[in-house]
Amino acid sequence: MAVLEIRLFGDPVLTQKSDPVTRFDAELARFGDDLLETLRSAYGVGLAAPQVGVLKRMFAYDIPPNEETGEHPFGVLVNPVITRWEGEQDGEEGCLSFPGIYYACKRAMEVTVDAVDVRGQPLQVEGDGLLARCMQHEIDHLDGVLFIERLSRGDRKRALKQWREREFDLEFEGIAPHLHRSDLTIKPDKTL
Fold first, then answer.
1. What is the pLDDT of residues 80-119, one digit of tens each?
2. What is the DSSP string of 100-148?
3. Domains (range + CATH), the chain
């Protein structure tokens, strides 16, 4: 497995729509493993293929274990489609392509996602809370939609201002603003 470079906001690949996966082979399985490894090394809960520069409709997820049930949802979904939305949640959301930026974002409380695994076998994942938020966030990435587009107008302006100030601060310190994510100090909280 390999840790891949996570693309940051401003990279054009993040706003492009991904193509459905049609070839299921050892290379796709390795890429799925690499996505999951990259996600875990970045302390995230979800990572879509476009975030590592690959325009394929797939993402990895790894939700912290539930202390009460011991349930630990993780895996790789290929060609995911949300088939059911229910309820609403409004909670803080971040993105590995926007390190350090977090804003309240409305999402459905529960979703059902139909997909296939890296071998092409059909599966269905039902999730609520953080898992539902994660799946909606990552499927947005596959459609070229960034979480800041889901924010209120005021929060979107604040997020973009915060991002520009971050880049200015890095340039002022003599550091290139578009760093590899390993060059950034990432706090080990679970970020989408």
1. 999 999 999 999 999 999 999 999 999 999 999 999 999 9
2. T--EEEEE-SEEEEEEE-TTS-EEEEEEEHHHHHHHHHHHHHHTT--GG
3. 12-183 (3.90.45.10)
How does pLDDT run across 37-64, given as a tens digit for each residue? 999 999 999 999 999 999 999 999 999 9
| Alpha carbons 44 and 188: distance in angstroms, whole number | 8
C-alpha span between 176 and 178 (Å, rounded)? 6
Helix (H) / strand (E) containing 28: helix 26-41
The catalytically annotated residue of 110, 138, 149, 167 is 138
Q: Give the span between the Cα atoms of 42 and 111, in whole angstroms.
A: 25
8-43, pLDDT tens digit by residue?
999 999 999 999 999 999 999 999 999 999 999 999
CA angle 189, 57, 66 (to 5 degrees): 35
- Check if 138 is active-site: yes
pTM of the predicted model, to two decimals?
A: 0.86
